[in-house]
Write a structure and sequence with these properties.
This protein is α/β, with parallel strands linked by helices. About 25% of the residues lie in helices and about 25% in strands. The protein contains nine helices and 19 strands. Strand 6 and strand 7 form a beta hairpin. It is elongated. The structure holds zinc ion.
């Protein structure tokens, strides 16, 4: 059955997940998704094909994929609420909460939240099948197939098989905007305290290994000032590039020093630091008047996000002792906290037992801190391997996709039934 099933079928999908298809997958154009999209037999693969068919790169409005998610959740019996806002480029973005077993009167408290981001990273135009889910050798290829539409497809398929009238405790599906550009949607939800949750599974590609801790992500832009002059007369100027180089030398020493604060379980087991971009000066024969560089650091849990920043400020003071005119501005633009959920957490233990894998840690940024701000114990979990995300030919293994449906269904039964 193609994706152009009649609208009259919406509302009574028969679910038969767990059977990888041998056939060519049905594909949808983005424009198909708001019409009669629910097939009489919605498998998790078809759901993923429909999600991938919607271009939801972070720079675009996400209304189309939200419409799809609304229709699916309403068909499954959920109450939905959209939380729209306009991003800094004037583009409308929507966070969506689908709720069962509770109402939107006052911020609801849910027992379990399944959280997936609706946006993807951009795709190379030469990848002509980026929006057309393609199966090969037990793998499903497409932009977002791994990160993180596979988790969303698994969650949508899992809820189809749950009898919501039997829920004892509220369940929420939370779909966020702009995760790939700074977890911005989840941060808005946390700031507004739109709900609270006891447990949250944040969908990210972890190869179905529950991840119970993650490094923080901090970012600053550093601007070092100098004084322009003709390069033939160095005494008339002060090179911002030489000054920045002295500071960066000290920052490299900081990167070494912080290795001693170790947190077992992470690879590498310490806070890492990177100067990723540097630019400055205007011509080869001009003493540079300004030099800017980026500074990024990923903190291990229990280390304050200000710790590295304070060390850098100390380094600035040291440099200034030898160069009283040293001028430097540090714009600390981002400080996403690390997180760590106890290995004794019921959620972590459940996922370990059900997935048959011990818990681990992630070094990349996630929406976990926002869910913690909403009261939740959090695990990061989902099908696909993060090492294959964010690249042309991103994929999710079919068996993991189907396993995820089973595990999420069992999670709902365990925590909400
Ligand atoms: Zn992701």
């Amino acid at each position: 059955m193609g994706l152009k099933a009649e609208a009259s079928r919406v509302g009574s999908p028969t679910v038969r997940e767990g059977q990888p298809t041998n056939q060519a997958l049905p594909h949808g154009r983005a424009s198909d998704t708001n019409r009669g999209f629910i097939d009489s037999v919605m498998t998790v693969e078809k759901t993923l094909a429909q999600l991938v068919a919607v271009d939801s790169v972070s720079s675009r409005p996400n209304a189309e994929i939200i419409s799809y998610l609304v229709a699916r959740c309403e068909a499954a019996g959920f109450t939905i609420k959209r939380f729209p806002h306009t991003d800094e480029n004037g583009v409308e973005k929507i966070n969506l909460i689908a709720l069962a077993g509770s109402e939107f009167s006052g911020p609801p408290t849910v027992e379990l939240a399944l959280v997936g981001h609706t946006d993807t990273v951009p795709y190379d135009p030469v990848w002509t099948e980026a929006l057309r889910l393609t199966e090969k050798d037990g793998k499903l290829f497409g932009r977002g197939a791994c990160d993180t539409k596979a988790f969303i497809a698994a969650a949508l398929t899992a809820i189809d098989s749950i009898d919501l009238s039997k829920l004892w405790k509220p369940l929420a599906l939370v779909f966020t905007a702009d995760e790939e550009i700074g977890c911005l949607g989840a941060k808005r939800l946390a700031q507004a305290q739109l709900f609270t949750a006891r447990y949250a599974i944040v969908g990210e590609p972890t190869s179905l290994q529950p991840m119970r801790a993650g490094k923080g992500y901090c970012f600053a832009e550093v601007t070092v000032r100098g004084r322009e002059a003709h390069s033939a007369y160095p005494g008339l100027g002060a090179s911002a590039i030489f000054r920045a180089a002295r500071l960066i030398g000290r920052i490299e020493q900081i990167a070494q020093k912080i290795k001693s604060d170790r947190h077992a379980g992470f690879d590498p087991p310490y806070t890492t630091l990177n100067v990723g971009v540097i630019e400055g000066g205007t011509a080869k024969n001009i003493i540079a008047g300004e030099c800017r560089f980026t500074l990024e650091w990923r903190t291990v849990p229990r280390q304050d996000s200000d710790y590295v920043l304070n060390l850098v400020r100390e380094a600035v003071s040291e440099v200034r002792k030898q160069d009283p005119d040293f001028v430097c501005e540090i714009d600390a633009a981002r400080a996403d906290e690390s997180f760590e959920t106890s290995s004794d957490s019921e959620l972590v233990r459940f996922l370990e037992n059900t997935a048959g894998k011990g818990s681990g840690t992630v070094a990349f940024g996630t929406e976990a801190p926002s869910m913690i701000a909403l009261g939740a114990e959090v695990a990061i979990f989902g099908p696909g391997d993060i090492r294959f995300a964010h690249r042309t030919g991103e994929f999710v293994p079919v068996d993991q996709l189907n396993d995820c449906v089973r595990i999420l269904r069992q999670a709902i039964e365990r925590f909400c039934l």
